[in-house]
Amino acid sequence: MLAGLAQLPAAPAAHAESKATGSRSVDVSITSLTPTAPKKSDTLTVSGTVTNDTRTAVSDARIGLRVGPTMNGRNAIDTAARRTGYAEGLDGTEIGGKYAKKIDKLPAGASRDFSLSIPVNQLHLGEDGVYQLGVSLTGGTSSQPWPQVLGIERTFLPWQSGAPAKKSQLTYLWPLISSTHVTARTDNDEDRTPIFRDDRLASELAPGGRLQQMVALGKNLPITWVIDPDLLATVDAMTKKYEVQDGSGNGTRTGHGQAVAKQWLDALQKAVDGKQVVALPFADPDLAALAHRGKNVTGSLGHLQDATELASTTVETVLGVKPRTDFAWPVDGAIDSSIVDVATSAGAHNVIARSDSLRETGGLSYTPTAARQIGGGNTAVVADARLSTAFTGDMSKAENSTLAIQRFLAQSQMINLQAPDKQRSIVVAPQRMPTTSQAQAMAAALEGLSGQWTQPLSLGQAAKAKPDPNATQRVPSSRSYPRSLRARELPTEAFQKIQETQRTLDNFEPILTAKYRVVTPFGNAIRRDMSTSWRGEARNAAGFRNDVQTYLSGLTKKVRLVPKTDMTLSGRSATVPVTVQNNLVQGVELRLVLRSHQGNRLAVSEPQLVNVEGGHSQSVKFGTTANANGPVWVSAQLYTPDGQPYGDEMPFEVNVTEITSTVILVIAGGVLLLVLAGVRIYIQRKRAAARSGEDGGDGEDAEDAHGQDEDDNEAQETERRDPAHAVVPGQASDPAPDTGSQSTGPSGSGEKVDH
Fold first, then answer.
1. What is the pTM of this model?
2. CATH architecture, range 171-469
3. How do residues 176-187 score in pLDDT, each as one tens digit?
4. Which of 157, 212, 616, 658 might form a disulfide with 133, Cβ 3.0–4.6 angstroms?
5. In 600-660, which ranges are continuous DSSP H helix?
């Protein structure tokens, strides 16, 4: 046991020694290769680093170049790029002598930089093609002191000794796309100062920033610009005063990106001069998510149409050029029949796909032309998957970018060599938002082509190219859409939330007198809700949508009815005041309706139009007519000018305390009867006074007697007609008369005389 335990510590050392004997013992990295596509008169320079990853030193180390055979196809390039370790017979013979670099000893864990230079004519390259180029470290170890390859790194060297029969037509898309930076909020000033989510865009526009590099590099490259108009609108807003949300999201601070925004727009205007510009729909909506999750939510597809129309206007306004808006670009060029239907529904008759989505099934021995007719007058422009994904890795490491550039050049030349007599158009659609290092690697690759086997072609021209009759034209079904991409789409709930916001905006807009202050920022915010840039950021996307809806709902509530308490009406006719409050900056126009729940008891006047200036309140008076005493429920409701309810209904109780019209009629009838009775009494008194006169003279007595006779005759006639009203002669037992009709003396004090 003791003997066994004594041997245990020796095991790791033995393991380390065994690692040092393999061809993966030393890490070789190529950090620079110039020129990337050399000519015969050039000198090839390869630089890099070797690192001893083992625990034993390497002696008699030597670094040299190895030229392998030409690649016989695109798959061979992929296979060679994946291979690790030295493979005798495949990696060629080392070019020794003065072109190799000696390192006497490389201690364990140590690194050494190297640089090898060799005239191209000493590489002994033959026919045109893609050659495998290796950098190897040869040396010995303590256990195996003889020369052996301990590490190797492979790359590719495209070789074109003369002009090809026909050059490939290469279309390279250069995307200017960014994430969403602007909120739906604006300051309450006349300039509608925008409020940004953050100030990261200023860093991207500043010298050395991602977007600044994209413009600076793309200026002199043979490319087609593909631009999200939302980016242009956002940068244009930055050239003026803008605010940025603070960390808490409640306060703001002043943004300071005006200078870099102006510089960037000026540089972009110069860079796109004379180049084709393709404008994506505003905010780059996620076409796949719309097709798979959003199209069943009523109204969602309408946003895509609006975004397409806005794209052209925005680009023309900001850049002064008329863009192409008839191209759709789904995420990663992955398409299915539903995505094509959605993309073309907004007027995009050209769909940018990718060859790993629209795969070749006809057994072609070459890469066909990008354009394909897919029915309905629509064209799929199929980008090459290998070239499009060449720079998706970490290009900040010189080794990665150098190998990616050489592999890109090798694949592009191999396409040309597949069918040298067939001129084909090849499209490259890289990642939507390349990093700074990725953009630099892309630019270096395009510069390395130098037109040796390719010639530039715009995207519009590529879409018009004659399709290859043997190329795949059938669009795959939705079942074949990659699960990894589908999992990152906006959910159906997101589109439902978007439509809720749109309905709120549609109800809010008609009452506004300055609609542009609200419709423009919120319309753009709704389009940004569907942006492709939210992929992989479900939490941030949901937060943005909620912020938009919450802020808009808050604005709508600033126009409201001031709550009323129960009120009392003390009269048959009275007025009921209702107050409308407007806390917006702009004025509003509404229709106010007062409705009685018991119209037979309390009637109210007709609805009224209300105009309320910003920051003011206005009281509106409604006439009422009461038909009965007691409480009646009344409700006030605001409506938009087009008749849609606005806000909640406000109920309140009205208590009527005055008499009703029926009682008034009864009282009026009683008064009338009293008046008639007074008239009758007056007539009776007048007749009684006439009868009480005695004979007193010839003339007067005769006249009085004559009058009395007439009165007697009239009384008899009255008695005959109406015995109830006959005048009865006075009797001796009757009391003294109460009124002056039976007494010629003056009336007593305090007596009332009816007239």
1. 0.81
2. Alpha-Beta Barrel (3.20)
3. 999 999 999 988
4. 157
5. none
